[in-house]
Design a protein that fits this description.
The protein has helices spanning 20-29, 69-76, 114-128, 135-148; strands at residues 32-38, 44-50, 52-54, 59-65, 79-91, 96-110, 152-167. The protein is of the alpha+beta class and 173 residues long. It has a domain at 14-112 and 155-167: Electron Transport, Fmn-binding Protein, Chain A (Pnp Oxidase, Chain A), CATH 2.30.110. Strands 2-1-5-6-7-4-3 form a seven-stranded antiparallel beta sheet. β5 and β6 form a beta hairpin. α3 (114-128) crosses α4 (135-148). The longest helix has 15 residues, at 114-128. The radius of gyration is 18 Å and the shape is globular.
């Protein structure tokens, strides 16, 4: 297990920092986050996307179409920000919220190698379709992906730094 690239230079409230294990749990268990890129004219662009965290490789995989605003932005500037909300609850009696979140900064690139893209797609599919344990299911998925590579792509996010944050609302005691 590789150590997460936490950026210790970023200011934070010590009470609000998620520990590395809880950050990993959120990365493993959440399914969606917001991927933010920047357009050529500097306009921010954020879209909700599904992802799969490969803990052994220390990266995240994304399945997406071959074309679109986010793809144009990534092709021009690979730097991205990806945020995940692990949990969130309103505490109306305190007019507050408690939450856990992870923010990842890094570089994103299309996986060009066909076998690597295929392996990443299988990894991604296993997260979203956990019943894919039968070898026939995997082979069927492989045939679908082979046809789909004309229209879709797998992208890999390599984190440069990760931050986890939480807020817990305490009851008066």
């Amino acid at each position: 297990m590789t150590k997460l690239p936490f950026d210790e230079s970023r200011p934070k409230h010590a009470k609000m920092v998620l520990d590395e294990e809880r950050t990993r749990e959120i990365l493993r268990n959440a399914h969606w986050g917001t991927l933010s890129t920047v357009s050529a004219n500097g306009e921010p662009h954020g879209v909700p996307v599904g992802y799969a965290y490969d803990e052994a490789q220390g990266c995240l995989y994304f399945h997406t179409a071959n074309k679109g605003v986010k793809i144009d932005n990534i092709n021009r500037d690979s730097r991205i920000c990806f945020s995940i909300v692990g949990s969130a609850d309103l505490v109306t009696t305190k007019f507050a919220a408690q939450y856990e979140s992870v923010v990842i900064y890094g570089n994103m690139a299309r996986i060009e190698d066909r076998q690597e893209a295929f392996d990443a797609a299988i990894f991604y599919c296993r997260k979203f379709v956990q019943k894919l344990t039968d070898e026939q299911d995997v082979n069927d998925m492989a045939l679908m992906m082979e046809k789909g590579f004309e229209y879709m792509a797998m992208y890999k996010l390599t984190p440069t730094h990760i931050g986890g944050k939480c807020r817990k609302v305490l009851a008066k005691g």
